[in-house]
Amino acid sequence: MSRAVPSHFQTREAELREQLANLHPEAVRRQREKLEQALNDLRNASTREPKVSDHALLRYCERVMGADLNDIRDRILREIGPAVAVVGNGKFPITGGAVAVVRESTVVTILNGEGQRE
């Protein structure tokens, strides 16, 4: 003996069948691409090498190693601040043979003595 299907199930089934019939092929293709990309991202996530962002590296130096970033900032500015105020943009030698690169009055990087970032 078969059981009667409740009317709200029949209504929902009719709605879903109508939506299925009205699906635009382009919308289906886009959704399929999104799902395939999500699957690829998931697969790749398990095989990627872990990395550490520069932000995380700074926070580690600050919070785990106890580095005082403000002290380091002040030290750099003590060395080159007066020259930057006069000259403006450029490369300025600092302690240890390194070079501070300044753009628009902001130190944007520190290079080693050979002009390399390493």
Explain this structure.
With 118 residues, this protein is an alpha+beta fold. It has 4 helices and 3 strands; from the N terminus they run H-H-H-H-E-E-E. A 3-stranded antiparallel sheet has the order 1-2-3, with helices on one face. The radius of gyration is 30 Å and the shape is elongated. The N and C termini lie far apart (79 Å).
Comma- or semicolon-separated keywords:
single chain; alpha+beta; 3-stranded antiparallel beta sheet; 55% helix
Summarize the entry for a quick read.
This protein is of the alpha+beta class.
Kindly state the number of beta strands: 3
What is the string of SSEs from the N terminus onward?
HHHHEEE
Number of helices: 4
Strand % is: 5-15%
- Give the overall shape, derived from the CA principal axes: elongated
Topology:
Elements: H1 7-21, H2 25-45, H3 54-63, H4 69-87, E1 90-93, E2 99-103, E3 106-111
Antiparallel strand pairs: 1-2, 2-3
